[in-house]
Amino acid sequence: MKPIEQFLEVIENKDFTALGALFTPDGHYCDYCANGTAQHEYHLYGKEAISMFFRNKFLFRQYSIMGAAVLDDRHAEFIASFGGYNIMAIVTLQQLSEDGHIKRLTVRPK
Q1: Angle, alpha carbons 67-40-31 (nearest 5°)
Q2: How many other β-carbons are positioned within 10 Å of the β-carbon of residue 1?
Q3: What is the pLDDT along the chain (110 residues), one digit of tens a residue?
Q4: 46-50: long-range contacts (C-beta < 8 A, 24 or more apart)?
Q5: Among the four 19, 39, 68, 80, which has the fewest Cβ within 10 Å?
Q6: Residue 74 maps to which CATH number?
Q7: Residue 87 belongs to what domain range?
């Protein structure tokens, strides 16, 4: 399974442990979609921080996605739900390590 497909699968399944495991130890997750909601954008650094952040978001039902579709090897789109605010988003795998882990990923409004 390609990294973009793995990313969508773990987000859809709300598997915060598997999400963190997709990233390098110094991986960067940046989400600009939250700016259109009552929240600030997310800049998360490191697989542990990514896993912990999404653990809380998933457990408190503050983040989910629906209608996910892979566009190509590095891009996908979905509807992101931020605690009741829905935003059409596009995710981009900007950098991958040689072993296929995510070094940098961004999510932006579409």
Answers
A1: 45
A2: 8
A3: 999 999 999 999 999 999 999 999 999 999 998 766 666 788 999 999 999 999 999 999 889 999 999 999 999 999 999 878 899 999 999 999 999 999 999 999 99
A4: 47/20, 47/21, 47/22, 47/23, 48/20, 50/19, 50/20, 50/23
A5: 39
A6: 3.10.450.50
A7: 3-109
